Each structure stands twice: as C-alpha cells, then as structure tokens.
Amino acid sequence: MAASDTAKKTVSLEVFRYRPDQEDEPTFQTYEVPYKEDWVVLDALNYVKDTLDGTLSYRWSCRMGVCGSCGMMVNGEPKLTCSAFLRDYYPNPIRIEPLTYFPVIRDLIINMDDFMNKLTDVQAWLQPKEEKPVSEGEYLQTPAELAHYKQYTMCINCMLCYSACPVYGRHPSFMGPAAIALAQRYNLDSRDGAADQRAEVIFTHDGIWGCTFVGDCSRVCPKHVDPAGAIQQAKVTATQDWYKSLLMPKQK
Amino acid sequence: MAKSNEPIWWSMFSAGGVMSAFFVPALIVITAIAVPAGWISAEGLRELVQHPITRIFLFVVIALSLFHWAHRFKFAMEDLGLKQLGRFLDIFCYGSAIVITIIAAAKLVTL
Amino acid sequence: MANKQPTRAGKDYVRTVPNTWWLKKKTYALFMVRELTCIFVGGYALFLLALVSRAGDEAAFEALLRTPLLIALQIIALPMVLYHSITWINLTPKVMVVFRGEDKVSPALIAGVNYVAWAVVSGVILWIACCKG
Q1: What's the whole-model pTM score?
Q2: What does CATH list as the number for A113-251?
Q3: Which residues, including other chains, have CB under 8 Å from residue A197's CB and lie 6 or more apart?
Q4: Closest residue, chain A, to B81 (C-alpha)
C-alpha cells in the first residue's frame, strides 16, 4: 500500500427509519460506510448494523439473488440490495427506503401479508389433471411443454414488481404482477388442471383487467420473469374464452 | 369476484390499436401533407372516398379507432385521479364510441 | 405448528400515492404519453368522419382539408400517432408469444415482421391515394 494513499473512500447512505414505538412519522438517517469495489448495498447495510447502528432493521438471507428477501428502494428504484453494487452509485449518496406501495412495519421492513394472501388466492400450486398413485409413475412432460411455462417458474417472490406497479400502488386490491404470473405458471403447465378455477380469480376486474401494461414490473424483475407478458397473454386467453362461451355456449 | 366482461372492450381496444397503428400515420400524411402540398388532389381523394370499398375501410378505421380511444382514455383518466367519476366515465367513453360509430355507419351508408 | 402473528410495536406506516405519480419516473411518464396518444387517434377518427360526411360536396370536402387549424392539429397528431404505432408494434411480441417446439420465436422477429407489414400497408395506402385518386 502506497504511503500517500491513506484516505479511505466512503459513501453516504441515506436510510429510511421508522420506529412505530417511538415516532408517528418516518425520518432519514445518514451513515458513512466504507466504499469497497465489490460491495453491494446489502454489505453496506450489514456494515451499518454490525458497527454503526445495531437498531437498523431489514430483511435479507441468501445474499446471492435467489431468495427474494432483500428487496428495497435504492435511489427510488426497486432492487435486490444484494445485487446492487456500490460502484454503480459511488461517489453519490445512496438513498435506501422500504419497498414502495407496501405498508412499513419498521425501518426497511414492509408488511407483505397482502402478497402472501394473493398467492393463496390464485392457488399458486400444482393441481394435477388426474391424481395418479405413485405406483403409476411420474407425471410426464415434454421439453416443449416445459418451455411454455418455464420462464414463469423463475419468480423468487421478491415483490420488486409490486413496487414498480402504479396500479397496485393506487389500488392495493389489484392482484399484481407476480401473483398473476404465478397463476399463469400453473395454468400453462401441462400437468395442471385448475386453469378454470384460477380463471374465476384472475379473469376479473382486480385481476388481469386491472393491468394497463405499464410494463415497469418486467423491467425491474431480477429474474426476467416478464410478468407483464404473462398478464397480456392471460388477457388473450380470457378474451378467447369469453368469445367462445358467447358464440358456442355449449362447448367447453 | 365474478369473471369480468372486460374482453368485449379490450378486444375492440386491441383491434382499434392495430388499425390505428397500421393505417392512421399514412392517412395523416395524405390529409395533412400530401393534399395541402398539392401532391394529391382533393377532388381525386373525394372520388376515392366515395368508392364502396374505401367507405367500408374508413368505417372500420373510424369505428375501431374510437373504441381504442374510449378504452385507453377511460383508464388514463382513472390513472390521473378521476376514478371518482367511475360509472360516468364508462358511459361517457364507451357511449361516445358507440354513438359516433352509429353516426359514422349512417354517414357512410348514405354517401 | 400454528402461525403465530408477531406482536407489532405500533401502526404500519402507509405511504400515499399522489395523482402525480406518473411524473416521478421516466418510464411512468413515457407510459402516460403512450396512453394519451389515444386522444390523437380518437381526434383523427373524428376528422376522418367529418371528411367522409362531406364527400358528396366538392367545395366543403376541399375546404375541410384546407383548414389551417386542422392541418396544424394533424401535424401535431402525426408524431403522437407514430409513437402509438411504434410502442404498439414493440409490445406485440409480449402479447403474441409463438413457440416452435421448445423454442420461443424471437420477439425481435415478431416485431420486425410487424414493422415490415406496417411499411407495406402504408406504402399501399399512399400508392392508392396518389395513383388511383
């Protein structure tokens, strides 16, 4: 290390704080953290919690972009903080807030009950067309059949898409991108037989028809699920079904 | 919540989106540039408009464009905060599109 | 084990979304512009209707086409409608997904085909107007 190079680079974090037991309104607190070339925003938050302020609360887990726990607003954009590199913001200050359009429980932790309920509402699990006993073997599927829904299996339930969706922001009853994309994941799965049941839930005013195709959900999705595409395709299916039942009421 | 009847409006919106996206730019070039500049004669255009096939084509473009406007405008107004108008917005948008389409049909049939 | 709700220290803080939400992000603003292009589409449809209504009257038909205000409005409408066309074609691959066996047909190809169709259709219309009129 050069003798003259003693200045340590730092970066400012402006962090949203909300302690319901102490205050009615949130505040912002600024922390100076070391700037490291390979650090992500999550590393900076962990540094704060470990050495500067142990009261800071936030969610995180795998720190490699697969668990979906560490979603937060970084300079106004929904990001997985484990995938947002400090070097992309340095030397400017970094503003960290809880995922927008969700109620805040404390600091950077949002209330995700609504999303969890929606996952249940859309029946985000496989319901085989016919139940087979184990003795009859596996449910078979060709690579082509898998290709139809594989993209939608990539969702890690990080909810960044909800923070990008102005419809959800203004109408929390809207099912939202991930829930509908997950419904499609099962609807398009050749093994599944519950598309009609899910249709009752998602082919509704608060389901697909609430979407105005802003498309920001797909832009922010860290796993390239493209929920916006899933919703538009569901609109096509719903429209085809609607005309079919209108013109050929006896057929299924 | 029951399945919505939105498909009727959305399918008209989509058809109108396609028609307007593909045909309207060229039509504007004709009516706003080519005719005023003298590249196409107004009289020639008028004769073309009277042809039955042109009349059907223009009716389809006009009608579907109106339904495209109606659906998108309704949602845009809600996005801008006019959701309080609710039902009235529906009636205004889809109602206008229906009424003007009927007028268009009448005009084009009586040419 | 039954789900036990954690005790909360107080009320959740709810952030409101203002009617100016679409001014907060570039992608939102562009979305709103895209949506508002429908006004120009609807407006032009009304103009077309007015024009067609005058098809029996040579003088009135020509007068409408030569009205400066209407020409000006159409010149403003043209880039708006072009923005509608471009955004519409660019979004088509998201709505129309085509599979060939295991492979998804490239979205660029689907958009490309639509662009070519748009060019061809526009050319045909212009040719009919100038050569058949």
Answers
A1: 0.93
A2: 1.10.1060.10
A3: A123, A127
A4: A170
